[in-house]
Design a protein that fits this description.
The chain contains eleven helices and 13 strands. The protein has about 375 residues and is of the alpha/beta class. A seven-stranded mixed β-sheet has the order 2-8-7-6-5-3-4, sandwiched between helices. A four-stranded antiparallel β-sheet has the order 9-10-13-12, covered by helices on one side. The protein starts with a strand and ends with a helix.
C-alpha cells in the first residue's frame, strides 16, 4: 500500500503519537478542568503542554491564545462568524477552500461585502491586486498560505505587512503548510492562524487550533460549560475558555502534542527539504510523460508538496480508481475548492492530487508513475 493523500490527512502517524493516544485512553483520560482529582489534573497539564508546543511552533506569545478546535474548518468558522459583521468588507481569493468560501457566502447573505481575487494561472496573488481591493470598510484579508489543489504558496510576509500598514486584520488558513513550512505569527503579522492537527502536524483527526496573536474581542460561536466560573450563567470572556465550551478531545490533543514534538526533533527544515526533494522528483517524472497535464507552479520555491495533474482523455475519477486498484491512494475531484478549477481549466473534471508526506519515498513515486503509464495504456 502506498499512501499519497497527506494533504487530506497525514499517514502514517509517528509511533509516539499512537502510543500516547492509547496511553491516555488506558491510564488518565478523565475530564480536563472539571475536577480536582489526579487524572483530571494530569489531563489539564498535558493539554497545557500542547498549547505551549503550538505557541512555540507558530510564535504565539501567549499559550492561552491557542484555542483547541476539531479541525481547521472549525477554527475558521469561529473567527469568520464571530468577527465579520454586516457592512464589513473582506478580501479573499479564488484559491480558498470551502472552509473559507462557504462561511463568506453565508456572511454575504447577511450583508457582508466580499472581494475574491483570481491570481495568475498558477494561483499566485499579487500585492497590487490585494491593495486595489482595499476599501474604507475592509475588515480582514483571509487567505490560505498554501493551496490544497495546486500547492501555490502565497507571500504571507508581504501580505501581512500590507495588512498591518492598512490596519486590516490578517487571517491565515495554514491547513497545508503548518508543520511543513515556517509560519511565524509575529514576523508575518498574522492576527489569526487556523491549523489542523491531523495533517502536517501529524496528530490525530478531530484536532486543530485557532491561534490568536493579540486579544481581540469578538463573539463566541458556541456557549456552554468551560470548567471555569461555573456558578455564572455568563460565558467567560478570558481565553481560551471563551471559545472552548464542552469537553476537549484529550486523547487527540495529547497525540497532537507528540506530533509536534516529533517535528521539533526531526527539524522543520529537514521535513521541508525532504518533501521538496520528493515533489521535484515527481514533477520531473510527470513532465517526461506526454500524456500528463500538470497544474500550478513547478518551482519548488513557490509550492508545497502537492502535485495536481490529469491524464489526457481521462476523467480524474477514472485515474483514481485505477490507482486504488493498485493500492496507491490519492485524491481526485474538486478537493472542496470550486473556484480554483476555473483558473486552471479543470472545472469539468477536477484533478488527480498527489500530496507527499515526510514518510514517503522515491520508490513510492516510482510505483505511482509506473502505474500511471499502465492505466493510460489500458485506456488507449
Amino acid at each position: 500500500m502506498i499512501y499519497l493523500d497527506n494533504g487530506a490527512t497525514s499517514f502514517p502517524k509517528p509511533k509516539e503519537v499512537c502510543a500516547e493516544v492509547e496511553k491516555c485512553l488506558m491510564e488518565y483520560c478523565a475530564n480536563p478542568g472539571r475536577g480536582a482529582h489526579n487524572m483530571s489534573i494530569e489531563c489539564d497539564f498535558r493539554i497545557m503542554k500542547c498549547r505551549e508546543n503550538i505557541s512555540k511552533l507558530f510564535n504565539v506569545k501567549n499559550p492561552l491564545n491557542v484555542i483547541f478546535t476539531s479541525n481547521t474548518t472549525d477554527a475558521l468558522n469561529i473567527v469568520i462568524n464571530g468577527l465579520i459583521r454586516e457592512k464589513d468588507h473582506v478580501i479573499s481569493s479564488y484559491l480558498e477552500h470551502n472552509s473559507v468560501l462557504r462561511p463568506l457566502r453565508h456572511k454575504e447573505k447577511q450583508g457582508t461585502e466580499v472581494s475574491l481575487i483570481k491570481g495568475d494561472k498558477d494561483g499566485k496573488l499579487s500585492i497590487e491586486d490585494i491593495e486595489r481591493e482595499i476599501k474604507s470598510n475592509t475588515k480582514a484579508i483571509i487567505l490560505n498560505h498554501g493551496s490544497n489543489v495546486i500547492g501555490t504558496i502565497q507571500d504571507i510576509e508581504k501580505i501581512g505587512e500590507l495588512a498591518k500598514e492598512k490596519e486590516i486584520l490578517f487571517i491565515v488558513d495554514g491547513a497545508q503548510t503548518s508543520g511543513k513550512i515556517e509560519i511565524d505569527m509575529e514576523k508575518y503579522n498574522i492576527d489569526f492562524l487556523a491549523v489542523p492537527g491531523h495533517k502536517g502536524l501529524l496528530g490525530p483527526q478531530g484536532t486543530g487550533a485557532l491561534c490568536i496573536r493579540n486579544k481581540i474581542s469578538f463573539e463566541a460561536l458556541k456557549y456552554g460549560g468551560t470548567g471555569s466560573q461555573s456558578s455564572s450563567m455568563e460565558q467567560p470572556e478570558f481565553l481560551p475558555d471563551k471559545f472552548e465550551s464542552g469537553t476537549l478531545n484529550t486523547p487527540g490533543i495529547v497525540g497532537l502534542s507528540k506530533g509536534i514534538e516529533f517535528i521539533n526533533r526531526v527539524g522543520l527544515e529537514k521535513i521541508k527539504e525532504k518533501e521538496i526533494e520528493l515533489t521535484n522528483y515527481l514533477i520531473q517524472a510527470l513532465r517526461n510523460l506526454d500524456f500528463v497535464e500538470c497544474y500550478g507552479p513547478l518551482d519548488d520555491k513557490e509550492k508545497t508538496s502537492i502535485v495536481s495533474f490529469n491524464l489526457k482523455g481521462m476523467e480524474s475519477s477514472e485515474v483514481g480508481r485505477g490507482l486504488n486498484d493498485r493500492e496507491i491512494y490519492v485524491r481526485t475531484g474538486y478537493h472542496c475548492c470550486p473556484l480554483v478549477h476555473k483558473l486552471i481549466g479543470t472545472e469539468n473534471r477536477g484533478t488527480v492530487r498527489v500530496s507527499i508526506g515526510y514518510f514517503n519515498s522515491k520508490e513510492d513515486l516510482d510505483k505511482l508513475v509506473m502505474s500511471l503509464k499502465d492505466i493510460y495504456k489500458e485506456k488507449i
